[in-house]
Design a protein that fits this description.
Helix content: over 70%
Distance between the termini: 59 Å
Oligomer: single chain
Structural class: mainly alpha
Strand order of the largest sheet: 1-3-2
Order of helices and strands: HHEHHEEHH
Radius of gyration: 17 Å
C-alpha cells in the first residue's frame, strides 16, 4: 500500500519536500537575513498550514480550531526565551539569526501532516468527515502555525525595541 501511495503522489509534492528540506537546513545555520526575507518563510508556512485546513475541510469549524491553536501558541510562545535568538542590525536593515533545527522539524511536521491528510482524502476514508478528526487535525495545524506566528511577532518586537534604543 505504501508503494501505491508513493507512486500516485504527484511530482510537485516531491519537489516541495526537497525545497522544504533545503529551507529547513538553511534555518539551522547562523545567518544574517534582510528584514523583509525574515518574515517571508514564517508567513508562507502559516499560509501553507491554513491552506491545508481550508482545502481539506472547507472554511467552517476547521478554521476555528486552527485559529484557536494559533492563539494558544501565540499566548505561550511569546514568553519562551529560546525564540528570542535574533538581533536586529539597523545599519543593514537585517536580522542576525542564530540557527536552529526547530524550523526544519516544524516544516516537516506540517508537510507530513498535510501529506497524510491528502492520502486520507484521496482514499475517501470516512474519518475525514468525523468532527473529532477535523477538529484535531485543524488544531494541530494551528498549533504548528502558531510557532511561526510567534517568530514573526518576536522579530518585529526585537526590531522595535532595538531601534528605539
Amino acid at each position: 500500500m505504501l508503494m501505491a501511495i508513493l507512486q500516485h503522489t504527484p511530482v510537485w509534492v516531491y519537489v516541495l519536500f526537497v525545497a522544504l528540506l533545503g529551507l529547513g537546513w538553511m534555518q539551522s545555520r547562523d545567518r544574517v537575513v534582510p528584514y523583509f526575507r525574515a518574515f517571508v518563510l514564517p508567513c508562507m508556512m502559516m499560509l501553507f498550514s491554513m491552506y491545508g485546513v481550508a482545502s481539506a475541510f472547507g472554511m467552517g469549524i476547521g478554521v476555528i480550531a486552527w485559529s484557536i491553536g494559533m492563539m494558544i501558541v501565540m499566548a505561550l510562545g511569546i514568553r519562551i526565551k529560546t525564540f528570542y535568538n535574533a538581533i536586529y542590525i539597523e545599519e543593514r536593515n537585517a536580522f542576525a539569526i542564530k540557527g536552529s533545527w526547530l524550523w526544519l522539524a516544524l516544516m516537516m511536521v506540517i508537510f507530513w501532516l498535510k501529506f497524510s491528510v491528502g492520502v486520507v482524502l484521496a482514499r475517501e476514508l470516512k474519518i475525514v468527515s468525523e468532527p473529532w478528526f477535523i477538529l484535531g487535525i485543524s488544531l494541530c495545524y494551528g498549533l504548528l502555525s502558531g510557532i511561526f506566528l510567534v517568530r514573526v511577532i518576536i522579530l518585529w518586537k526585537i526590531k522595535s525595541i532595538q531601534v528605539k534604543h
